[in-house]
Design brief:
Blueprint (H helix, E strand, L loop, with lengths): L26 E5 L6 H10 L5 E4 L16 H9 L3 E4 L6 E4 L5 E4 L7 E4 L1 H18 L4 E6 L8 H8 L4 E2 L19 H11 L5 E5 L10 H13 L13
Parallel strand pairs: 1-2, 1-9, 2-3, 3-7, 7-8
Antiparallel strand pairs: 4-5, 5-6
């Protein structure tokens, strides 16, 4: 069980000044991914009563299945019951670039999956599919009219195409990238913890994952300490608004 009190941070050389409660909330967002640390991260959110907006895609996981398979239904149902919200992270988690007027190139970075060109209807179908799968698993899920491109890589044309089906792109802010995708040899957890606690300001949109396969020092190892530190600094957390942040 994760303790509800803030964990000691003095060992990391992190001061904890008394400050007034932040006026603007911090928005934590979590993308799918390898999901190896999903239960550990979810336990921190539950014990610290931190709401998050969860961007879902059908990605491979450490179990050998995919994140929106029926095998993940209990996990997503638990997150919905805890009050988290959901949004689309595309179905196949491929990458976007322009391919002429009214078209995007949608390409995989995994070997053998290829690429295709989508018009607005095709992009809207790609964005709708993870939400349809989620609702099969979690009929009462709260879904926001937002989407996030894999890697945050998108174009003005892609945003316009998605807007035609009522979806607004949601990225993250300047200090919102928590660093869980970075190489842990060059960016160890202790350094990420110091950087994030020093840089995160009210109103930031934070981004992380339920676990990243390539990172040898899992970011989940400092996640509770990071949340404790942000709470101790007076930050409060909120779900993204329907119009994005």
């Amino acid at each position: 069980m994760i303790p509800r009190r803030a964990l000691p941070l003095a060992a990391a050389g992190l001061a904890l000044p008394r400050i007034a409660r932040a006026q603007a909330p911090v928005f934590l967002t979590i993308d799918t991914g390898w999901s190896r640390e999903a239960e550990q991260i979810a336990e921190v959110l539950r014990c610290r009563a931190i709401p998050a907006t969860l961007f879902v895609a059908q990605e491979p996981t450490f179990r050998g299945d995919r994140t929106l398979d029926a095998s993940w239904g209990p996990f997503w149902r638990a997150r919905a019951a805890e009050g988290h919200a959901f949004a689309s992270h595309t179905w196949r988690h491929w990458y976007i670039s322009d391919a002429g007027p009214g078209r995007i190139r949608y390409a995989s970075r995994r070997g053998g999956e290829g690429a295709e060109v989508l018009d607005a209807a095709g992009l809207c179908a790609e964005l709708a599919r993870p939400i349809e799968a989620l609702r099969t698993l979690v009929p009462n899920a709260r879904v926001l009219p937002l989407w996030r491109a894999p890697g945050g890589i998108q174009t003005a044309q892609a945003r316009q195409m998605a807007a035609s089906c009522g979806l607004r792109h949601q990225g993250w802010t300047a200090h919102g990238f928590l660093g869980d995708e970075l190489d842990s040899a060059a960016h160890p957890n202790a350094a990420l913890l110091r950087r994030n606690l020093a840089n995160i300001r009210p109103g930031e949109v934070l981004v992380m994952h339920w676990g990243v396969r390539s990172r040898r020092e899992p970011f989940a190892g400092i996640f509770d300490e990071l949340m404790a530190g942000l709470l101790a600094r007076g930050h409060r957390f909120a779900l993204l608004p329907e119009g994005g942040a």
